[in-house]
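Retry 2 of 3 after timeout on previous attempt. Resubmitting structure tokens to design endpoint.
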């Protein structure tokens, strides 16, 4: 069983409207910059387009980094990230 603080957490930002896809792609760039500046454990980011008017940007953090990252970046939601089974890939 994975130790609690060893889990990967996927922090998610939702974007809606006609420019959702472009905004999510742009936000991902800022997430990548944040990872480098803060020297986070993982460098996993991505975007997923659900429709023409709903996209997400996400980043994956170690659970011990989650609280501080969440307070700084204010994601709308989060979930446990599983390497082999990510439904939003």
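Retry 2 succeeded. Sequence:
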């Amino acid at each position: 069983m994975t130790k609690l603080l060893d889990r990967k957490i996927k922090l998610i930002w939702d974007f809606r409207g006609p420019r959702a896809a472009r905004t999510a792609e742009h936000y991902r760039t800022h997430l990548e910059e944040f990872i480098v500046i803060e020297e986070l454990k993982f460098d996993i980011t991505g975007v997923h387009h659900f429709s023409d008017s709903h996209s997400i940007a996400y980043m994956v953090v170690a659970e011990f980094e989650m609280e501080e990252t969440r307070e700084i970046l204010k994601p709308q939601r989060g979930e446990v990230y599983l390497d082999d089974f990510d439904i939003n890939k």
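Attempt log closed. The mean pLDDT is 92.
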